Amino acid sequence: MEAGLIVALFAGGVAAGIVAALLGVGGGILMVPLMTLVFRVPIHSALGASLVAAVATSDAAALWPGKRRLMDVGLAWKLALATTFGATIGATVALASKPEVLQLLFALVLLYAAYQLIAPRRGTEVVRDVEWASIGRLRKAAMWLIGLFAGASSGLLGIGGGIVIVPALYLVLHKPFKTATATSNLLVGITAMTGAFAYWWSGALLPGLTLSITAGAFVGAIIGSILDRRVSSAVLRWGMAGLLVYSAIQMGSGLVRQWLGG
To answer: Domain range holding 60?
Structure first.
């Protein structure tokens, strides 16, 4: 790989890692469009590299004391079985799917993520200790199904599943927003590891590409964890939503031109 490309991928990873740590996502919502649209990386290689980087962002967030104190570790492990099983299914389906189908799905997921980021939020960001045992059976079942879907989206789209997990923890279990993002950081790492292994096993991972963007994501996640208490979440949500919509339009318009041209 050329030195300029390595630096660019590292810088992109840093930006994605900052967002991942602040919003509890894996960073794939930035990394996959960056690799496919800017650097023309094959979609399957981009998805695999994004999942490896998601593991790195999760580890970095867990190392920072401020983030670690907000994590509901018990809840993350309870949902991990559903998300990892879903990630295995999603990665298997993705490797057998056409790139055009994956790009369309990713564009739709980006639009969903943008809506979730700017949707009116309720509640407070003061940490509340909600025990799993006190949660009703219906909400537990809903969280297991959502965890399965989050894992499947992780393996299928290389996004870590955070854009599904964070809204679920916040809206279904009524977790404070920063508790939801911190817990998602941990769960995303567990989930992404399963999907990343499937892409590695298939030979889709490109070592130089993966190492460059993963190293940047790790550094960015540490920076994001430090900034977590200093940056307005409202500003971050609106800025990120705009970027997601732009990326979705770019991916979707490319597919439309391809289909019309065909």
So the answer is: 3-98+121-238
